[in-house]
Amino acid sequence: MIAPFDYFEHRWACKQKQIERSDRIANLPPEYHSPVSSQDRRILDKSVEQLVQDVHNQTIKPIDILRSYGKVAIKAHAKTNCLTEVMINPGAEKWIEDVNLKGPLAGIPVSLKDSITVGGFDVSVGYSKYTGKPHARDGTIEQSPMSKPTYPSPSSPSNPQMLSGAAPQTPTTLLTPPVALPVANPPS
């Protein structure tokens, strides 16, 4: 594109993504727009390991985890403009009922960098010229058994044994994800 027309194309692409994101947020079920409850607080205060264990033991439902983290992500976005895509869709709530509850990330929402290819979404890597071009299917990372998400996408396998149980929540511009996995370095 020739200057100054590239500027106008950039502004248009940014505005379109903002409208798309706003529409997705506005169309979320009412639970995502309600205040953080005491149940949400209990979920948010638990470690990832404890949440996975609770899902494995069926003392907590993955949908409750998704809603708690989704609610907080939407509230953080309202204050900081931190979300680039919202991958919580109406089908995710129904589909999450059939997820593998024994997977290593069972029921845990994850935040994805916008360079990860998820079917049905753009991979903009921060460039407006790559918006408006959703990928037809998931990329290599999302197709692996350890990272297969719990949301319906065009390339989701029908074999629930291949699903880890992680629920992608949204790509984000936050420097740190909403959950942190503990890392233990071996002694030297």
Question: How would you sum up this structure, described in words?
Answer:
The protein is mostly helical and 188 residues long. The chain has helices at 5-26, 38-45, 48-56, 62-80, 90-95, 140-143; strands at 109-112, 167-171. The termini are far apart. Residues 145-170 and 172-188 have low confidence and may be disordered.
Concise description?
With 188 residues, the chain is mainly alpha-helical. The chain has helices at 5-26, 38-45, 48-56, 62-80, 90-95, 140-143; strands at residues 109-112, 167-171.
Give a topology summary.
Blueprint: H1 5-26, H2 38-45, H3 48-56, H4 62-80, H5 90-95, E1 109-112, H6 140-143, E2 167-171
Parallel strand pairs: 1-2
Helix pairs in contact: 2-4
Radius of gyration: 17 Å
Largest sheet report:
2 strands, parallel
Helix segment tally: 6
Beta-strand level of the residues, as a percent range? under 5%
Unreliable parts? 145-170, 172-188
Question: Strand order across the biggest sheet?
Answer: 1-2
Mean pLDDT: 76
**Order of secondary-structure elements:** HHHHHEHE
| Number of β-strand runs | 2
Structural class: mainly alpha
Helical content class: 25-40%
State the separation between the terminal residues, measured CA to CA: 54 Å
